[in-house]
Amino acid sequence: MAYRIVTDSASNLVEEMIDEFGLEVLPLTFMVDGVEHRSYLKGAKTDLKQFYTMMREGKVITTSLPNMQETENTLRAILEQGDDVLYLGFSSALSGTYQATALLMEQLSEEYPQRTLRAEETFAASGGQGMLVYLACKKAQEGATLDEVGDFVVQTRDHLCHWFTVDDLMFLFRGGRVSRTSAWAGTMLNIKPVLHVDSKGALVPMEKVRGRKKSIKALVDHMEKTAIEPASQTVFITHGDCIEDVELLKSEIAERLGVTDFVVNYVDPVIGAHSGPGTLALFFVGTEK
Questions:
Q1: d(CA 198, CA 8)
Q2: Whole-number pLDDT of residue 47
Q3: Alpha-carbon 265 to chain mean position
Q4: Counting Cβ atoms within 10 Å, is residue 256 exposed (0-12), middle (13-18) or buried (19+)?
Q5: Mean pLDDT in runs of 10 for the chain (289 residues)?
Q6: Do the Cβ atoms of 122 and 197 come closer than 8 Å?
Q7: Can you tell me the distance from the alpha carbon of 166 to that of 172, in angstroms, rounded to the nearest whole number?
Q8: Which among 113, 124, 210, 271 is least buried, having the fewest CB atoms inside 10 angstroms?
Q9: Across-strand partners of 6?
Q10: Backbone angles phi, psi at 238, to 5 degrees
Q11: Do residues 272 and 54 touch, judged by C-beta distance below 8 A?
Q12: What is the pTM of this model?
């Protein structure tokens, strides 16, 4: 049976990959000074550099779930074509997107009993979610069935490592991730947090280092400890408009771990609104998350 893999725009996938795998991407929404925008529209090139410029200028940005009517229309169109659906969604510890979409799929499954609709939470975000979707699509390309790909996601998601750092702690404070005191003290002392996403899909501060270069080195240190055959992996990196730091991170990974294949993209606005400009995130498969 034919099936389509569906994800949401929190996966931060590059357009070329979306086209290659025939992915359907559900756009999350964000507001800039009260004006609503979609974080992804197929074929539309969003100027994400400009988005981060607006953040630096202090524009008020808020986020929300996907438009569920649009999500329903997208899923119905797939089902009406006679295809089944495997949805791989954004971590529920960070957003209500997965629960809302999974509930909608349960309702649609009653209307389309002849179709298979399976939802799996990735417990991931940004390039971590994107990398898991990418690996799932590769399995599908090799001929795996919908359930085989879904089972693969369940088996792999606890090994999809997320390590990241931010440049401005005040954005994490505004998103409720750190206290005001920690944010101000860290800013004054040039402290850069190193965080990861745990097995429940939640953001967890892991350590603090002084200075940007040390925080980038710390990302690679964590990768060196747990990555499985890193030189043979496609490694994902996302960033909040700091491409120079991306290049520094890539060169450090290539030199120490022999990685040659990277996928780089911006952190999308819905996640970037909470992590801020200067976010730098690294994703790979490891022995443990």
A1: 20
A2: 78
A3: 10
A4: middle
A5: 93 94 94 86 78 89 89 97 97 95 97 98 97 98 97 97 87 64 65 92 90 96 98 97 97 98 95 92 97
A6: no
A7: 8
A8: 113
A9: 24, 87
A10: -125, 160
A11: no
A12: 0.93
CB 1 within 8 A of CB 19: no
Instruction: Give the pLDDT of residue 33.
Output: 86
What is the predicted pLDDT for the residue at 40?
83
SS3 114: coil
Q: How far apart are CA 142 and CA 266, in angstroms?
A: 28
CA distance 203 to 166: 12
- Count of Cβ atoms closer than 10 Å to residue 108 Cβ: 17
Let me know: does 50 contact 277? Beta carbons within 8 Å.
no
Q: What residues have CB less than 8 Å from 39, skipping those under 6 apart? A: 9, 10, 27, 28, 29, 30, 46, 268, 269, 270
Residues ≥6 apart with Cβ < 8 Å to 283: 126, 127, 128, 130, 131, 160, 161, 162, 163, 235, 236, 237, 238
Tokens of 152: 């693969």
